[in-house]
Design goal:
With about 500 residues, the chain is α+β, with helices and mostly antiparallel strands. Helix content is about 55%, strand content about 15%. It contains eleven helices and twelve strands. The radius of gyration is 49 Å and the shape is rod-shaped.
């Protein structure tokens, strides 16, 4: 039997050279992008408002011309025999910016007044049944044209007149539309700037500043993730940003805790690698002595020598298991049906409880109980639990003089073996129960490494079982559930045929 060398733990996640990354926003930040996005959107809204506004302005000006023409028609129609001096007709047409005014009454159309009629009419505009779309297209068509074309406007008449017609120049109307558009553009720009500024300030204080705070916390935490001062302090906001701050704070705390555990694990691996050389020499010397004791014919020596050899082998395996746990390379269990009583007896002797009269030992195992498990790994699980129980009783003995007892029970329920290890100690503190089976989560006892329950849980899970703390018991009770491996029916039939 050769002593096993303990190899140092090597972190497989060695970081390379840190990638150069910007610590702040490059180019336009979120505020600049928000401003560039707000101004065009407000301008688009202004344009959408301008389109119906200019169409409404155009229609109103046409209606004003029609209303003025109706007033002029009343004056011209009221003259005796329709005789109106030519000079008065010109003055009336000039006042309403028209070249001619005509009305239709019944089947007759009357030209009430005219002055310098154009040779051709470019457009006819009928206000009696104009739609919104016709108003929009007509207004923009007039604004985009050039020159001074003559247009005829038809609108509802007054009195007995069916409708009234007015011939006018479109240049004055186009100039009015240009002035109105200029005023609208100036007002729209002022409103757009004010609205964009207000929206920008509101979004800046509601969203941009909190996002900068989150970003600064992320950058600072990346620089030093093990510093608790870099953890963000969440605000009292109840919206999504408040939720993000609280979740980021919790994530940073969990990550910092994980990094601390990883540092402790690395320190543990370094410490074990340093004592590897000396421990190997000590175990080699103990091995030579055990080999010499095995040749002594004394019956008592022959009785204890195999156990000594086995203890040395387990000592080597335990040291190696600590390193294996750090590398997450625990060997797969070599499962077979084993009797549990010899394993429990060996656990008691190894833990030193066979000669300890201060702690009562109770083993309530079903007769002939067999477990489908790896004997060495099951031994390690039970030994960790028993040692924890013994340490809890020793630390509790000074404060309570009551009976101290460790109890191991075992039974079978169908294809499942159930083992329980309990003690009458102080129990597990409430603050450590949520992370009881995680590495380095000790209960605060002096000398505890925080690896016993973590290794036990890993070995039990490798068997497809589970381990948990039973609530509502005196002291602490750990229940281990190990199911039997499923057996293929074909293999059983082949074995029976061979038998």
């Amino acid at each position: 039997m050769a002593a096993t060398d303990l190899q140092p733990v090597h972190d497989t996640d060695q970081p390379g050279q840190p990638a150069m990354r910007p610590r702040g926003p490059s180019g336009l930040g979120l505020s600049g992008k928000l401003l560039l996005l707000t101004v065009p959107l407000v301008m688009i809204a202004a344009v959408l408002l301008y389109v119906p506004a200019i169409a409404n302005f155009w229609v109103n000006r046409l209606n004003d011309r029609v209303a003025a023409a109706n007033t002029a028609a009343l004056v011209l129609d009221a003259a005796p025999l329709g005789m109106v001096p030519e000079s008065l007709s010109r003055e009336i047409l000039k006042s309403i910016n028209a070249r001619a005014v005509a009305i239709k009454m019944g089947q007759q159309r009357r030209l009430l007044a005219s002055d310098n009629l154009p040779t051709a009419i470019e457009h006819d505009i009928d206000l009696r049944d104009m739609t919104v779309w016709e108003a929009i297209t007509g207004s923009f068509r007039m604004m985009l044209e050039t020159g001074n074309q003559a247009i005829r406007i038809v609108g509802p008449g007054v009195g007995n007149a069916q409708f009234i017609e007015i011939v006018t120049d479109e240049l004055p109307l186009r100039q009015q539309m240009y002035r109105f558009s200029r005023n609208v553009v100036v007002v729209a720009l002022i409103i757009a700037v004010l609205t964009a500024g207000l929206v920008y300030l509101a979004l800046h204080y509601l969203f941009v500043r909190p996002m900068r705070r989150l970003t600064a916390s992320l950058v600072g935490f990346h620089e030093n993730p093990e510093s608790s001062a870099r953890i963000i302090v969440p605000s009292q906001r109840s919206d999504e940003i408040g939720v993000a701050e609280r979740e980021l704070s919790d994530m940073q705390r969990d990550l910092m805790s994980m990094l601390h555990q990883k540092s402790r694990l690395a320190a543990l691996g370094l410490a074990v690698s340093k004592i590897n050389h000396d421990l190997r020499n000590l175990l080699a010397s103990a091995q030579l002595l055990s080999d010499q004791l095995a040749s002594v014919p004394d019956p008592r020596v022959q009785r204890f020598a195999p156990k000594l050899v086995r203890s040395l082998e387990r000592a080597i395996a335990f040291c190696q298991s600590t390193l294996s746990y750090g590398r997450a390379q625990e060997a797969a269990p070599d499962r077979r049906m084993i009797m549990i009583e010899p394993v429990v007896l060996e656990v008691r002797e190894t833990a030193g409880l066979a000669s300890d009269a201060s702690i009562a030992w109770v083993a309530a195992i079903e007769r002939g109980l067999a477990v489908d498990a790896d004997p060495d790994q099951l031994f390690r699980v039970l030994l960790n639990l028993v040692r924890n129980a013994a340490q809890a009783l020793e630390s509790h003995s000074s404060g309570d003089g009551g009976a101290q007892q460790i109890r191991i029970t075992g039974k079978r329920e169908g294809a499942v073996a159930i083992l329980e290890v309990s003690d009458t100690g102080p129990g597990v503190p409430q603050k450590t129960r949520d992370h009881l089976f995680e590495a380095f989560q000790t209960s605060g006892r002096p000398g505890g490494s925080g690896l016993g329950l973590a290794i036990a849980a890993e070995l039990v899970r490798a068997h497809g079982g589970e381990i948990h703390l039973v609530e509502g018991t005196i002291g602490a009770t750990f229940r281990i559930v190990i199911p039997d491996r499923p057996v293929e029916l074909l293999s059983i039939r082949n074995e029976r045929q061979r038998a």
